[in-house]
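Onboarding guide, step 5: your first structure request.
Type a short instruction followed by the sequence, for example:

Predict the 3D structure of this protein.
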Amino acid sequence: MSRIQTTFQRLQAEGRKALIPFIVAGDPDAELTVPLMHSLVAGGADIIELGVPFSDPMADGPVIQRASERALAKGMSLARVLDIVRAFRVEDAVTPVVLMGYANPIEAMGAAVFPDVAGKAGVDGVLVVDYPPEQCVEFTASVRAAGLDQIFLLAPNSSEQRFRDVARAGSGYLYYVSLKGVTGAAHLDLDEIARRIPRIRTVAGMPVGVGFGIRDAEIAKQVGSVADAVVIGSRIVEEIEASPRDRICANVETFVRGVRVKLDELAGA
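The system replies with structure tokens like these:
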């Protein structure tokens, strides 16, 4: 059983929801990324989604695009992202880390070799935005062979057949994109999320996380009341962007802790 699956099993037994924050590796710089990851955990993160910066992040809104640009300008690469995970694992052997990004950096490294290298670095899962399950069969096989979970996205207009397709190919959890558009955009339709998530969970048979547009602790709690996990990205990246460098870790930890407190009000509900 993977670290991701173990985490969800523990949280379910405790009656709690998973908090999954997202940051971009190398933003604001490589030296601060590992301390930032530890701050996320200190604030109550259960799983970390670590963004692999890419020059054309088509699913990301302007906040995360700027973060990727900052990271790339300072020389961040997929190989350096894996070095960051290795450094994180020196002090944290428990918290699952999911790499989230795009196919191009993986294919540049070699899609056949990447899963094994990532697993040895301490990565637990991968979410490749532009790898739909029907187009990455060989990659998925390599991911499974390396003992990693592959997480897939579901859109608001995904069909039940799509639920089944991603459930067969994926593991760990499913990521439900809560709105049509890029990260950090628009207003969440909480009624629609409440209607869709139970059906996805029933059909897919695995935990469902919700992201793309969760801005504060209260909305996180509302989403957490129907989902198994809450994913927050753009709002945290905004905190990184707006904070003085010597306050970034503390400010991010404070924000994440506020979300954790609200989610824990759901415990046992």
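Each response can be followed by summary notes, for example: The first helix runs from residue 3 to 14.
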